[in-house]
Each structure stands twice: as structure tokens, then as C-alpha cells.
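Appendix C: a fully annotated inverse folding record. The material below is reproduced so that readers can follow the format used throughout the book. The structure is listed first as C-alpha cells, followed by the designed sequence.
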């Protein structure tokens, strides 16, 4: 069993990772897809404007990338703190 300070460091790193990934997800989905959509309307990608792309596909694709990045980051944290499966 890991000691209390190691456990606290693990959870602190875990919460920091979660916060970072939630901020990225928020910025991409809400920021680019909704708030910045009018500014991105002039940029074309795949036959449509970039704001529409972020609102319809981009946020979903970024979310999928975040899932895999989170899993990789947590595996690394688990190894660093000795709590891997």
C-alpha cells in the first residue's frame, strides 16, 4: 500500500489531468463550436466553414482523441505512482 503523501500526489496529478482535459473539451466544443463560430465562418474545410465543422464533427473527434490521451496519461501516472494493474 502506498503511503499517504504518495496517494495525495497521485490524486492531485489525476485531478490536474482531468481539469486540463475538461478545459480543452470545453474550449473546442463550446468555444469553437458556439462562441467563435461566426469568426471561423470564413475559413473553409471539407466544403463547409470551420465553425460548422467544429460544431458538428470537430468537437466529437477532439473528444475521442481526449479519451485516448487520458487513458495514456493515466497509465503513465499509474506507473509513476506504483498503482498500475
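Designed amino acids, in order:
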Amino acid at each position: 500500500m502506498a503511503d499517504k503523501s504518495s496517494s495525495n500526489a497521485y490524486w492531485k496529478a489525476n485531478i490536474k489531468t482531468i481539469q486540463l482535459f475538461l478545459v480543452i473539451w470545453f474550449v473546442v466544443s463550446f468555444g469553437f463550436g458556439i462562441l467563435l463560430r461566426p469568426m471561423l465562418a470564413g475559413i473553409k474545410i471539407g466544403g463547409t466553414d470551420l465553425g460548422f465543422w467544429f460544431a458538428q464533427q470537430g468537437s466529437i473527434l477532439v473528444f475521442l482523441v481526449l479519451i485516448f490521451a487520458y487513458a495514456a496519461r493515466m497509465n503513465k501516472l499509474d506507473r509513476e505512482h506504483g498503482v498500475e494493474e
